[in-house]
Inverse folding.
C-alpha cells in the first residue's frame, strides 16, 4: 500500500478550497484546509504536512507569511504559491523566499496534479537523503568509537557486545579498574536501537547514599533540605535511552532494593513522592568486584544480581592483551593530537618495549595517563624511555629463568617460561619445539604471539636435526 501524503490547502475563497480538496482527495492525498494565513501557520506549527498550496493575496497573513511559517516548521517543506494577479516582482520574491513553484490562476486540474506529484516526490527524496545522511553519521560515530584491540581475547568480547547490543537485555560488565568498562557500555548503547537517544552515566561509588538516591530516582520539592524544586532522576531523564550504573557493587542495601523495583516494575518513586513514575530505559551496569562473592557474603542482593546479570561481559586486563598495546598507543596519541591528527607523536622502539613489558595494574586507563604525561614532557616529536613515568621505566623486567622462582607463580608465567626454554633448547626451531611440547605448531605460533616470545634468529621452521 502506498503511503498517504498530506497536503495543506490555504485560500480565503471557500469555493477554490472545496474544488481543490475534492480533486486532491480523489487522487489519494490526505487534505487539510485553512481559510487564512493565521490558521495555516497554527496548523503548520502543530504538524507539518508534505506539501502546502497557498494563495498569496489573503486578508491578514499573506501567502508569503505562510511560506515563512512553513520554512520555520520544516526547511525542506515544499510550498506552492497561487495567485490570480501574477507579476514578475511577486514571482521573484516568492522564489527568493524559497517557494517550490509559482502557480497562476486559473489553472487546469492536470497542471495542479502534476505539480503536486513532483513536489511530493521531491519531499520524499529529500527525507530519504536526510535519513541516509543521519544513518551514515550514526555508523561513522559507532565505528569510530569501537573499542580498540585486535587480540583474540578482546575480539571475543567485542563480538559478544555486538550480539547483545540490539536487544533490550540488561548487561553486567565486569573487570578490573581501568579496563574500559564505560567505553564498552557506550559501544553497546550506540549499537542498540536506542543509539540515537541519550546515554547517561553515574558512578555509584562516588556519591553518598542520600545524594545517589536523589540522582537516580529524583525528588519532589521540600522532600529534604535543599530540595527547592522537583527534579527528575536519571532513570526518568534517560527515557528512551540508556543508563550506565558504574561500580554498582558500591550501592547500599536500601538503594539496591529501589533499583530492583525499578528494573522489575519499570517505574520509580521519587524521594518524597507517593506516586510512581513510569520509566523507559535500558540498564547497563559495571563492577570491579566479584558480585557472586558479594552475594555469598550478604553484601549484595541476590535478586538484584540475577536481574543485572542477564548477560555478562568480562573485560580482559591489559596484561592479557599485550598485543593490543601498540594499537592503543597509536589511538591515544592520535586522540591527544599534540602534533596534529595526521602527525601524532611516535614512540621509540626501546620505549615501546618498556611499555609492552610493564604489568599495567591500572590497565588501559593507566596507559592513557602515562602517554599523556610523556607527550607533555617530550622535547621532540617522539617519546623516549626517559619521558615515561618512573614507575614504568624502573619496573623490574620479568625474567624467564631465575635462581629463585616467585612463590605461587601464575600458570601463565609458568607456561610462558617453559615455552621459551624449549624454544631456546631447540635453537628456535618451532616445528621441533611444538613436537617437544606436544602441541600443534599453529597452537605454538599463537602462544608465541600472545606472550611476545623471542625466537632464535635464523632458525628454520621446517629444519630437522642433522
Amino acid at each position: 500500500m502506498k503511503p498517504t501524503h498530506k497536503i495543506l490547502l490555504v485560500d480565503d475563497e471557500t469555493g477554490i478550497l472545496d474544488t481543490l480538496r475534492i480533486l486532491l482527495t480523489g487522487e489519494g492525498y490526505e487534505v487539510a484546509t485553512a481559510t487564512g494565513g493565521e490558521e495555516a501557520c497554527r496548523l503548520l506549527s502543530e504538524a507539518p504536512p508534505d506539501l502546502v498550496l497557498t494563495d498569496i493575496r489573503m486578508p491578514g497573513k499573506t501567502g508569503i507569511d505562510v511560506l515563512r511559517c512553513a520554512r520555520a516548521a520544516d526547511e525542506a517543506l515544499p510550498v506552492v504559491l497561487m495567485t490570480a494577479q501574477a507579476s514578475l516582482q511577486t514571482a521573484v520574491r516568492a522564489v527568493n523566499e524559497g517557494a517550490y513553484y509559482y502557480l497562476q490562476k486559473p489553472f487546469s486540474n492536470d497542471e495542479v496534479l502534476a505539480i503536486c506529484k513532483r513536489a511530493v516526490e521531491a519531499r520524499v527524496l529529500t527525507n530519504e537523503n536526510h535519513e541516509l545522511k543521519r544513518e551514515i553519521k550514526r555508523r561513522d560515530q559507532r565505528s569510530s568509537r569501537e573499542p580498540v584491540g585486535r587480540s583474540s581475547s578482546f575480539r571475543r568480547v567485542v563480538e559478544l557486545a555486538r550480539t547483545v547490543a540490539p536487544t533490550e537485555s540488561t548487561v553486567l560488565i565486569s573487570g578490573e579498574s581501568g579496563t574500559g568498562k564505560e567505553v564498552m557500555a557506550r559501544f553497546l548503547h550506540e549499537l542498540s536501537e536506542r543509539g540515537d537517544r541519550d546515554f547517561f552515566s553515574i558512578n555509584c561509588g562516588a556519591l553518598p547514599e542520600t545524594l545517589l538516591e536523589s540522582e537516580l530516582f529524583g525528588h519532589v520539592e521540600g522532600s529534604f533540605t535543599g530540595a527547592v524544586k522537583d527534579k527528575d532522576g536519571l532513570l526518568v531523564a534517560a527515557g528512551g535511552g540508556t543508563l550506565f550504573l558504574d561500580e554498582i557493587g558500591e550501592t547500599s542495601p536500601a538503594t539496591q532494593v529501589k533499583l530492583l523495583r525499578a528494573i522489575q516494575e519499570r517505574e520509580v518513586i521519587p524521594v518524597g513522592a507517593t506516586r510512581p513514575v513510569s520509566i523507559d530505559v535500558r540498564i547497563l551496569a559495571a563492577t570491579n568486584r566479584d558480585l557472586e562473592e558479594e552475594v555469598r557474603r550478604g553484601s549484595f542482593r541476590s535478586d538484584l544480581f540475577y536481574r543485572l546479570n542477564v548477560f555478562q561481559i568480562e573485560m580482559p586486563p591489559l596484561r592479557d592483551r599485550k598485543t593490543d598495546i601498540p594499537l592503543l598507543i597509536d589511538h591515544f596519541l592520535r586522540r591527544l593530537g599534540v602534533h596534529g591528527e595526521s602527525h601524532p607523536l611516535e614512540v621509540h622502539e626501546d620505549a615501546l618495549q618498556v611499555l609492552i613489558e610493564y604489568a599495567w595494574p591500572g590497565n588501559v586507563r593507566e596507559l592513557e595517563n602515562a602517554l599523556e604525561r610523556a607527550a607533555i614532557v617530550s622535547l621532540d616529536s617522539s617519546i623516549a624511555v626517559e619521558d615515561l613515568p618512573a614507575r614504568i621505566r624502573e619496573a623490574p623486567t620479568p625474567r624467564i629463568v631465575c635462581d629463585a622462582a616467585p612463590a605461587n607463580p601464575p600458570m601463565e608465567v609458568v607456561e610462558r617460561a617453559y615455552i621459551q626454554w624449549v624454544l631456546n633448547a631447540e635453537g628456535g626451531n618451532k616445528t621441533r619445539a611444538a613436537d617437544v611440547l606436544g602441541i600443534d605448531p599453529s597452537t605454538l605460533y599463537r602462544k608465541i604471539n600472545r606472550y611476545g616470545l623471542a625466537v632464535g634468529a635464523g632458525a628454520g621452521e621446517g629444519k630437522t636435526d642433522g
Remarks:
- The chain has four domains: 6-128, 152-314, 318-393, 400-466.
